[in-house]
Write a structure and sequence with these properties.
The chain is mainly β and 202 residues long. The protein has two helices and 21 strands. Strands 1, 5, 9, 10, 14, 15 and 17 form a seven-stranded parallel β-sheet that branches.
Length: 202
């Protein structure tokens, strides 16, 4: 929990933000406003962009309470009030798995975020398990924002024709078989396969 009502490893951020090489695991993240595993909320008109790289969010409880925000595995509410739109979100080499992500107000909750619908989003070389990465906003599900991403959730409901180089639904999520199921990821330097779900090497 945080004093400003937002929950996350970083409850509120501003400017051009880059966060690298962190793991949030087995945590309880509850915000009366927004909640995300890495970033809770953007600082209104001061947030310009968010980049999250080489990060893992695993086995957490993440809950948001504000009606317009929702909750997310990586971010909660990314919005620039002065521009009247969401700040761009870039994700590189991330793993989101085993989380319970909820909104007490019934808003969207996804493995990526609660509110993150920017036309400049870019989601790359990442794994999203147990919770869908896709939200209803066009730029949260558009084919061009995904590059070499994998999920075990149903992606057909998005109504998009994802290619194998964009977003792939997989059934194998543990063991050495993930290397075959997710062939476009870097299994030598970034991800590691073991008996359970994949791990980040960094």
């Amino acid at each position: 929990r945080s004093d400003d009502g937002n929950a996350g490893l970083f409850s509120k951020v501003s400017g051009n933000v880059t966060i690298k090489n962190v793991t949030v695991k087995n945590s309880y993240l509850v915000g009366s406003n927004a909640a995300g595993g890495i970033v809770g909320d953007g600082n209104n008109g001061l947030l310009e962009s968010v980049t999250i790289e080489n990060c893992a969010v695993i086995n957490n409880y993440i809950s948001a309470g504000r009606g317009d925000s929702g909750a997310g595995g990586l971010v909660g509410f990314l919005y620039n009030s002065q521009l009247g739109k969401a700040a761009p979100l870039t994700i590189n080499n991330c793993l989101v798995a085993g989380n319970e992500i909820v909104s007490t107000k019934g808003q969207e909750c996804t493995a990526i975020g609660g509110s993150f619908n920017s036309q400049y989003n870019s989601f790359n070389n990442s794994i999203f398990l147990d919770t869908t990465p896709i939200a209803s906003g066009w730029y949260t599900k558009a084919t061009e924002v995904y590059h070499n991403c994998y999920t075990d959730q149903d992606i057909s409901s998005a109504g998009m024709a994802y290619t194998d180089a964009q977003l792939v639904q997989v059934t194998i999520t543990t063991g050495e078989g993930v290397k075959t199921a997710m062939p476009n990821l870097d299994w030598d330097k970034v991800f590691a396969a073991n008996a359970g779900i994949p791990e980040l090497r960094v």
